[in-house]
Amino acid sequence: MKTLVFTLIAVSLIVANFCDAIEENLVLYFDFEEKGNTAIDRSGNDNDGTIIGAKRVDGKIGQGLSFDGEDDDISFSLKGLLPTAGTILIWVKQLEVSADNSRYIFNHHDPNRIYIKAPEGNLLVTLGNTGLPGTGKILEIGVWYHIALVLDDGKYELYLDGESVQKGTYKGLNAINPTSHLCNHKGTEAFNSAVVDELKVFSQALDKASIKKEIQSEAVFASGKIATTWATVKKQ
Ligand SMILES: [Ca+2]
Ligand SMILES: [Ca+2]
Q1: CA of 153 to the centre of ligand 1 (A)
Q2: Which among 38, 41, 22, 19 is positioned nearest to 30, based on CA atoms?
Q3: Ligand of minimum distance to the alpha carbon of 40
Q4: pTM value?
């Protein structure tokens, strides 16, 4: 029994190590590990998502949500987020190129725009009334990428797989909309064929180390190490 308790504590410490104070500023978290037409917001803020058409498939960690690029949607609120500071993190794998090649990944629509998209595969963001140039980083079809967008009072920084690929300034992001979407524009157009997983939105600007930590902690779960540890605990 002592071994069991010790192992449980050790596992708890491993998990706690990756879930530090920044988790308090989590305003939305979808892991897509459920069934049905609601994506449960694990942050506790009731920013649940309404799914139309999109299907659960193998994701980056467990299940992800797959969009057909024709008419699939998920809409959700971002209660708890202010327009002044925040971080959006998401895993995405582009599938075939859909008719509209704008390839929206995250859509918080105009006039207070927060767009993460990859037209022609070229990763770019649009913020408020500021259209920004493509990063030149191409999201290949069938490959998982981790994207993090940090907003900090008129300054932004975009990360791809934990590395900064663009930063600068923006204007005109003054309010948070009642709804946002993944993989389309406003839920009505520019549908993107892709699988997404692990959408996290924080109400603070995360630094590079915190973003890397998020990716690292997810990698631990994805590799099954935690599950393996639990399996070992159960045997004792
Ligand atoms: Ca559909
Ligand atoms: Ca998942």
Answers
A1: 37
A2: 41
A3: 2
A4: 0.87
